[in-house]
UniProtKB/TrEMBL annotation:
Protein name according to UniProt: Protoporphyrinogen oxidase
Gene Ontology terms: biological process: heme biosynthetic process
Pfam families, per the entry: Flavodoxin_5
Organism whose genome encodes this protein: Haloferax marinisediminis
Keyword set includes Transmembrane helix: yes
Length: 226
């Protein structure tokens, strides 16, 4: 069992849903999973976990600032253990090369900004939650939808997240973490065996030297008549 921390922030709730889904996949694999919003993660000590995932939506072509701050504040601890990053965006829903390049660019700019190169990256389609937007956002997203998805009915919300993608990401992460942990345990076991062999050899040699010294001393004190 591995202890895994999932830290995320969410504007309208879709990244929270994805984090919960990831938690369920990892928990079903038998791991001990802690999920925290960045806003509630001030007391979180990343070094206490075996592995870490960080998630953020893209808002205005960048990730949420509090997520970026969390990454910057925990850069060393993140990089020192198996880690991954997942993002939600609308660019991910648009099957055009230019949109996919834009989606990649969000991750690239995070890597450049923070210096963190995640082991695993998940790029997931998000949601359009008209019910939660202010009138300006609603109008902007309706216009955007008119030229992309066609989902312009503002009386309802649209979810584009492909849960199979999320499942595949969480499963690949769990596979990697488990394999790395197994390798570390094998290496530690091997080092322990080597230490034991050296110690046992030392004891045998010491006993040999002591036996020889005893034999040599005993010879010196043999009574003359013998
Ligand atoms: C104010 C706002 C700005 C957004 N800006 C972008 C953007 O620049 N690029 C993009 O691909 N998606 C953008 N999105 C779409 C979100 O990434 C998507 O809706 C995601 O599901 C939001 O996740 P959340 O509910 O966890 O905040 C934006 C959404 C909002 C509400």
């Amino acid at each position: 069992m591995v202890s895994i921390l999932v830290v995320y922030e969410s504007g309208e709730g879709q990244t929270a849903k994805v984090s919960e889904y990831v938690e369920n996949v990892l928990t079903a694999r038998g791991h001990d999973v802690t999920v925290r919003r960045v806003a509630d993660a001030a007391d979180v000590d990343v070094t206490l976990y075996d592995a870490v995932l960080v998630g953020s939506p893209v808002h205005y072509r960048t990730h949420l600032p509090e997520v970026v701050e969390f990454i910057e504040a925990n850069l060393e601890a993140l990089s020192a253990r198996p880690n991954g990053f997942f993002q939600l965006s609308l660019a991910s829903t648009i099957p055009l090369k230019v949109a996919q390049r834009g989606d990649d660019a969000y991750v690239d700019s995070l890597v450049t900004k923070t210096g963190w190169q995640p082991d695993h990256v998940g790029r997931f389609a998000g949601a359009v939650t008209y019910s939660q937007y202010n009138p300006v956002e609603r109008m902007v997203f309706k216009l955007l939808a008119a030229v992309t998805t066609g989902d312009t009915d503002t009386s309802r919300d649209y979810e584009y997240t492909d849960w199979d993608d999320v499942d595949a990401f969480a499963t690949a992460f769990a596979d990697d973490v488990e394999a790395r942990l197994e390798r570390d345990t094998a290496t530690r076991r091997h080092a322990g065996t080597r230490r034991f062999t050296w110690a046992a050899t030392g004891v045998v040699l010491l006993l040999g030297v002591m036996a020889f010294a005893y034999w040599a001393a005993a010879r010196q004190f043999v009574p003359a008549e013998c």
